[in-house]
Amino acid sequence: MAGLFSRYLVLALCLIICLTSISSANAAVRRFKWEVKYEYKSQDCVRKLALTINGKTPGPTIRAVRGDTIVVKLNNSLLTENVAIHWHGIRQIGTPWADGTEGVTQCPILAGDTFTYKFVVDRAGTYMYHAHYGMQREAGLYGSLRVALPDGESEPFSYDYDRSIILNDWYHKSAFEQAAGLSSPQFQWVGEPQSLLIQGRGKYLCNSTTLAKDDVCNATSPECARHVIIFVPGKTYRLRIGSLTALSALSFEIEGHNMTVVEADGHYVDPFVVKNLFIYSGETYSVIVKADQDPSRNYWAVSKIVGRESNTTSGLAVINYYPNPRRDPPTIPPTGPKWNDTDARRNFSLSIKSHPKFIQSPPQTSDRVIVLLNTQNEINGIRRWSVNNVSFNLPHTPYLIALKERLGHFDQTPPPDGYDTAKYDIFKVQDNANATSSNAIYRLKFDTVVDLILQNAQTMNKNKNDSETHPWHLHGHDFWVLGYGKGKFNKSSDPQNYNLVNPIMKNTVPVHPFGWTALRFRANNPGTWAFHCHIESHFYMGMGIVLEEGIEKVGKLPSSIMGCGDSKGYRRP
Ligand code: C2O
Ligand code: CU
């Protein structure tokens, strides 16, 4: 018996050693040197100060292979502004300090300073990066991060070429001006974007009536020339599509072509075919498209705002069938789906299931259920967004440092795990008189299973039924998407309809108007993690929470993340 056991032990040890040596033999360290600065750009033909990386917006695409270590040496060349960059979709297992979330996992990188991000990309898939400080993301600081499988492994679909596209919306006002408007008593909403960008390019229709007084328009600037994707007839394309809009929910389509959805947020999807892809800020998808249409002409790729009644013109790119000239297609671009067809969008969400060969079964029960009511409020005369009537503020000392090094303070009264479901009518405007703002966080028992239920509700708009779509993004984890429903979540009956068989895992998911979304995850990644609405202005107005798990298991914090709040001048003993 003992002999058998030791033989197994030897076998197991050998297996571990062999496997680790294989992966470390192939894993590469990929080093990048980035300089962040302001430059005049004309992304939609109107000149604007944009945040650039090495002179570009979107910034350089990071390509890596699963298991690689990414090292980004970031030089903050902004003269008067701090910065931080988040690696959206990377779980940062073992490196919670590299998550790039200012106020949660690190102090901001000061103007003139250099900071090095170092982390491992442990799963193949389509990811993104973007600024996570104030409202800087919408000033142009973002890009793609794609992780390939190691040689010898294959994905459950095939294609000839691989292209990354980031969809975005674009404002002519600076992020500063917008932030000031949002946080002042004379509340100034950001409004609809001026343009939609596809891979950083859009076209604003410049004329004397549409152009603001100081705006400079250069309709022939190469910076706003349409983005072109070449299709070689007969070939198959994988388009990796991500959205980093500041506000807008989008529908994306390619004139005359169907798309097969195969990946969502780094997980393989049970393939399904769509004409238009609904995509929310913070989500990524891979779709497979075949260049099988009449090759004698070009086609439009279109992004259109849905979920809000908007006059913003659609974003346009050109699908250029080789070897046609690069010119615009001869047709009027497709107008896309109706903006207010919530059912179509909910059905799309419900269609996304795990690929049968890659199902990671969710735990069948959970240890804790946190219901998160999403509402608009007014607190001390300032318009805010809240969760269970608590509007979130970032502390001066980031939580990771405050908890691990016992420096700095934040509100110790834990925020509520739910709201008064009996009294609160989600369909009506409520006065929410007891709303507060706080920087308190949710502390989770390590390795427990937690359900997060997003509950949508009526906004403060008294004139009409109004409930917005909010894309929620979780840092440090992927969650199982167990269900979407209409109306008020019922704690006893709705869980009976959860998909516990083949749910997709994601890191960003919408909660639809007047509906709910149920998520489950395991709190097994030591650190402090933000969970927030990915709409830039909503998070800025308090729409988020922070979770802590296993803080005692977090390794030694690098002193480079410190220097603000109570960690000023602090050097670890
Ligand atoms: Cu892409 Cu905290 O966000
Ligand atoms: Cu929101």
Tell me about this structure:
Strands 10-9-12-17-14-15 form a six-stranded mixed β-sheet, with no helix packed on it. Strands 21-20-25-30-27-28 form a six-stranded mixed β-sheet. A five-stranded mixed β-sheet has the order 11-19-18-13-16. Helix 4 links the parallel strand 22 and strand 23. The protein folds into three domains: 121 residues, Immunoglobulin-like, CATH 2.60.40.420; 196 residues, Immunoglobulin-like, CATH 2.60.40; 209 residues, Cupredoxins -  blue copper proteins (Immunoglobulin-like, Sandwich). About 2% of the residues have low confidence. The N and C termini lie far apart (50 Å). It is mostly beta strands. It is built from five helices and 32 strands. Bound molecules: CU-O-CU linkage and copper (II) ion.
Quick gist of this model?
This protein is mainly β. The protein has 3 domains: 28-148, Sandwich (Immunoglobulin-like); 161-356, Cupredoxins -  blue copper proteins (Immunoglobulin-like); 359-567, Immunoglobulin-like, CATH 2.60.40. It has helices at residues 2-26, 175-182, 342-351, 399-404, 536-540; strands at 29-41, 48-53, 62-65, 69-76, 85-88, 114-120, 125-131, 142-148, 161-170, 195-198, 228-231, 236-243, 249-254, 259-264, 267-274, 276-279, 284-290, 299-306, 315-321, 368-379, 382-387, 390-392, 436-438, 442-444, 449-455, 470-474, 479-486, 505-506, 508-511, 515-522, 527-533, 544-549.
